[in-house]
Amino acid sequence: MGSPPRIDDDVSRAEKLGEPEPMKPDIYEGESIVLDEAEVFLRANNISDETLRDLLADEANVRKVVRKVDMRILPLLAVTYVLQYIDKLALGYAAVFDLFSDTKISQNQYSWFASMFYLAYLVAEYPWTALAQRTRMAKVVSACVFAWGAVLMATAACSDFSGLAACRFFLGVFEAPITPCFMMIVGMWYMRSEQPFRAGVFYSCNGVGSMLGGLLSYGMGQIKTFPVWKCIFLLCGGITVIWGAVLLVFLPDDILKAKHFTVHEKATLIARTRAGQTGVLNRHIKWYQVKEALLDPQVWLLTFFVLLNEVINGGMSNFGKLIIKGLVKDPLQTTALGIPQGAFQVVFILSGTYFASRFRNARTWVMMFYMVPTIIGTSMVWKLDRQQYKVGVLIGYYLCGGFVSALVVALQMPASNLGGYTKRVTGTAVVFAAYCIGNIIGPHAFLGRESPTYPTGCIVILACSVSQVLIAIALRVLLVYRNKKRDEAEAANPSPEVIDGHEAVTDLTDLENPRFRYAI
């Protein structure tokens, strides 16, 4: 393939020919507000469009750069997600042991802990996301990871409902920016066709976290000299505090500030992003893009899809262990039987996001079909006799996790299908607001008096699952229609040839950019 083009090739060619340098003009005052920050970087480093085309044409170099991103960025996101999931469910693990008796809380009070967490998440998510856009994303994430670890450790000192509720609230505050920022990080570093599977890789670590958390709780369940539930909070929180410091050192804020990537590699990554028409980074909030995001039907269909999805999650994540506890009496057995659910979740997420990345326009199909295992599993949990078919109930519980794969694809859609950095941030924030509201509502469908079968909760899950299938169909129809209209307009009035991704560098939204095509 030959050696990759040097960044200064354009300058040297111009100097030899005695011609003016083929550089773009200097950035005028105020122009940086319009331009994507990556374009500012390209101009500052004298990198022309011709050079970017040469970089993209060098397939061996592109694969090498993508592997480097996979090795340096994805592991940091993945480990953070493992810890986040373990920490989020630490209360569920603690509930299997002596949390209820030691703190004198009831099942109805326990239902409110998830609501407190996601209420805080809802309040804090957009301010954190806006702060991450305007400042340094990795530093915001690292500080929040460190803080949520400290809050988790403080939970071990609680002795009543009010103390636990306060800790859950602050845990929600500091976990709020993690997932939206990670989705934006994936959207920044990867092309649209690569994004679903990469998001699936770190999101599948929820399943890894579920398995590791179960094993950890099972091991600590052997402790007889100290309250097990306190051990869970102290150990998980301590590990998270240490990991926050690791992120502070190694997670880059963005492509442009990544210390371990050369200018040549950064230019390659920028060229790939420009080809996707979404842009890389713009720190200026553009209010017209906020308005456009709030009026876009695509955003609201995704919002309602995620809302219903997280009603399911809010119930299953907080009461799943109690459903198993209704089948067996030993706390250690309950913990052990919950471990396979994590493995099922990993399989669902990785397979669903692989199909969404591997096959063209398959994302909304994944959003539809991966609700089917949840419908089947919930029906089994609800209707099978718990004395005669315990194994069947367990398998049904494991199948319920199919909805998570549909969620991951839906959460990545704003990063893939919204052009304009402010619109993308706003759309992501709106969708994640629904994520929080769903998790606030979900636990209250599982009524304490209906334990351990929770028929009302099962009915709510089935209704949400069927509704999500219908919403995914509507979303697909909308996006197919938009792409068809743009194809027809371009065929009728062919536009002059321009540099691929030129519209992205001026931070246009998907509705402003006639070359933008939606991932379906």
From TrEMBL:
It comes from the Eukaryota. Residues 1-24 are annotated as: Disordered. Keywords: Membrane, Transmembrane, Transmembrane helix, Transport. It holds the Pfam family MFS_1. GO terms for cellular component: membrane. It is found in: Membrane. The chain crosses the membrane at residues 73-97, 109-128, 140-157, 169-189, 201-220, 232-251, 299-316, 336-357, 364-382, 394-413, 425-447, 459-479. It is a multi-pass membrane protein. GO terms for molecular function: transmembrane transporter activity. Its main location: membrane. PANTHER family: PERMEASE-RELATED, TRANSPORTER, PUTATIVE (AFU_ORTHOLOGUE AFUA_7G01190)-RELATED. Belongs to the major facilitator superfamily. Allantoate permease family. This is Uncharacterized protein.
